[in-house]
Write a structure and sequence with these properties.
This protein has 3 helices and 6 strands. By secondary structure, the chain is of the alpha+beta class.
Length: 130
């Protein structure tokens, strides 16, 4: 019998809530600490500018990145990738006061359960072009 109160940590709602927590951390100069705790030791982030950042680099520098003033996440969907893993794919639009043009990209975050905890293994941004 399944527990009706159990929430699947790899379900759309759970992963989208986790992504919002990450964006909130990026909006308040806590991104390095947040993602440092969330990422597996071997995890990487591939940014829209082509940079590939490992966990150590994220922890060392992300707290000093300019904060987002606002963001929206839309078109989210989960892609199961195994019994204990899934990818969350979504569209993000974010703004910083210093930049009149919004940052718009497609995002993919891959998560895996490690000791019953959701951990980020891979993250990629893809710019939205015409």
């Amino acid at each position: 019998m399944t527990d009706p109160t159990h929430v699947d940590p790899l379900a759309l709602e759970s992963l989208l809530a986790l992504e919002h927590r990450g964006w909130d951390a990026l909006s308040s100069h806590r991104g390095g600490a947040f993602y440092g705790a969330l990422m597996t030791p071997e995890a990487v982030m591939v940014l829209v500018n082509g940079m590939v950042l490992d966990r150590e680099t994220i922890v060392a520098g992300l707290d000093d990145s300019p904060a987002w003033d606002s963001y929206t996440l839309t078109e989210a969907r989960v892609v199961p990738t195994g019994e204990d893993s899934a990818a969350l794919v979504y569209r993000a639009s974010a703004r910083r006061a210093a930049d009149p043009a919004p940052f718009e990209a497609l995002m993919a975050s891959h998560y895996r359960l490690v000791d019953d905890e959701v951990r980020l293994t891979f993250y990629q941004q893809t710019t939205i072009t015409h």
